[in-house]
Amino acid sequence: MSATLKCAFLFLSLFFFIPQPLAGDDANGLDLSPRPGPEVWVTEYWDVKEGKMEEFLAYYNGVLYPVMRVVPGYRGYSMLTLKPPGGREPHIEAYGGAIIPLGPPEELFPVHPGQLLAGETRTDRSVHLESLLRGQFNLIFVHHMQDWDGVTLFAQDLIEEWAERHDGEYIWDALARDFFPLVNNHWDTYYHLQETSLTITDEE
What we know:
alpha+beta, two-stranded antiparallel ribbon, four-stranded antiparallel beta sheet
């Protein structure tokens, strides 16, 4: 067999054994090739007071977000909740029938097949530290910032944009008066996005 034919045979062999996601498409035809995205994700955990959820969301979406969305470098947010889709159970069954709840599990060491302790002793259990936070939050917001400069300047830009829209008012005075009384607690966690394979198409 000639060298050319050997190379062609090797190429075809590799091509047909490449899983489709690695070839660039998933089952729905989306391009899943890794690509850069917003560089910083800011994850906010909120514990909204009982009976205040509608008021909280109305303020967030109607008063606060219109100011945030025009700040340079801000790319919007995703909201996550512990509430399941309409009428469904607040958990899923996975790992051969194990019940996986929405949100943190009740136990600190939930079932997770294949897990090892210290990389040596198989336990089929994972350590789920968020179980310690169970009941301490009911909403998560993930804010997308385009780059590090944008997230560094975000707070000052937000102050200035709010003041321009609200007759010079200091935003943190307004939020302390009208917004934060709706929640019991709130905290932020910052992440540096390395890559994402998600591609938004016109059909979505």
